[in-house]
Amino acid sequence: MTFIAARHLPGPQPSFINAANQSILIGGIPFAYRDLGPREGVPLVMFNHWGAVLDNFDPRIIDGLAKNRRVIITDYRGIGGSGGAAPLTVGEMADDGIGFIRALGLDKVDLLGFSLGGFVVQDIALKAPERVHRLILTGTGPAGGAGIDNVGSVTWPLMIKGLLTLRDPKFYLFFTRTANGQRAASEYLQRLKERRQDRDKGPTPRAFLRQLKAITAWGKQAPQALGRLQMPTLIANGDNDIMVPTVNSLELAKRIPNAQLIIYQDAGHGSIFQYPTDFVAKALAFLGA
């Protein structure tokens, strides 16, 4: 994986497929990221799911958003191209996220978090509300949310099923079993292979398990004061999320004052990957409102 120093950047990259791998030091630890799209306006910083590296971001969503937004994606500490050890709490990941935003010299950002990333951006917004313009929460839930601490027991059998059927476990974890869901899963997994060169390295088993501990702790954590989130918030999920049960999205919409809610039908945890065109259109309208 080739990196470019953060202080010697090329111009905006035209596509996720060839966006440069970059790295910036935060407290002496290198954090890997990619940065594309126009430079005007409020940047959108995105945080992804458990075990995700840069190449687990959906190219169709990244490219769609980056047509008229600056989009920045990053690896968590200890994951992919980022150094250090993976944190054992969501709070530490959020602290890293705030450090990342500051290190890039960004005064105000929009945040998008999917799954684990949704936990992280909630915590960033609570800790540094002055830096957050708008918030997008997808496939996620609040601290202490229903069923979040059971994600391991839901995930392991389907990961084993993936090994036995020679399929990526996300085929079973992110999508419904209907013909529509399975078709969307196959299309999404093919998109994740579109980048051929300078791909990120996958997570180590140790980092994967440390992140699971952080997710489980989030599920057992006391509820946060989400009423303090005064920034406009968009929440999206499928109607059949088996990883972070859909009821958690309803709970977020109830507790965050300026929240809009989208529930996609016949969709699971990865609903935004099942309906990327619709999600990008709604996200851009929300961000530009």
Q: Could you characterize what this model shows?
A:
The model is unreliable at 7-12 (pLDDT under 50). The radius of gyration is 17 Å and the shape is globular. The chain has one domain (4-287): 3-Layer(aba) Sandwich (Rossmann fold), CATH 3.40.50.1820. The protein starts with a strand and ends with a helix. A hairpin with a 2-residue loop joins strand 2 and strand 3 (29-36). The chain has helices at residues 59-66, 90-103, 116-127, 151-165, 170-173, 179-191, 205-220, 247-255, 271-274, 276-287, and strands spanning 4-5, 22-26, 29-36, 44-47, 71-74, 109-114, 132-138, 233-238, 259-264. A nine-stranded mixed beta sheet has the order 1-2-3-5-4-6-7-8-9, with helices on both faces. It is an alpha/beta fold. InterPro entries: AB_hydrolase, AB_hydrolase_1, AB_hydrolase_fold. It comes from Pseudomonas brenneri. Keywords: Hydrolase.
Give descriptors for this structure.
alpha/beta; Rossmann fold; nine-stranded mixed sheet; 17% strand; hydrolase; AB_hydrolase_fold; hydrolase activity
Task: Output the strand order for the largest sheet.
Answer: 1-2-3-5-4-6-7-8-9
Helical coverage, percent range: 25-40%
| Estimated structural class | alpha/beta
Into how many domains do the coordinates divide?
1
The third-level CATH topology is: Rossmann fold
Instruction: Count every beta strand, where a strand is a DSSP E run of 2 or more residues.
Output: 9
What is the 3D form? globular
Major β-sheet annotation? 9 strands, mixed
Which residue ranges are poorly predicted, with pLDDT under 50 across at least 5 consecutive positions? 7-12
Total count of helical runs of at least 4 residues: 10
CATH hierarchy, class: Alpha Beta
Task: Summarize model confidence as the mean pLDDT.
Answer: 94
| CATH H-tier superfamily | Alpha/Beta hydrolase fold, catalytic domain
- How many angstroms separate the termini? 38 Å
Strand content: 15-25%
Q: Evaluate the radius of gyration.
A: 17 Å
| CATH architecture annotation | 3-Layer(aba) Sandwich
Order of helices and strands: EEEEHEHEHEHHHHEHEHH
Protein name: Alpha/beta hydrolase
Keywords: Hydrolase
Domain AB hydrolase-1: 43-273
InterPro entries: AB_hydrolase, AB_hydrolase_1, AB_hydrolase_fold
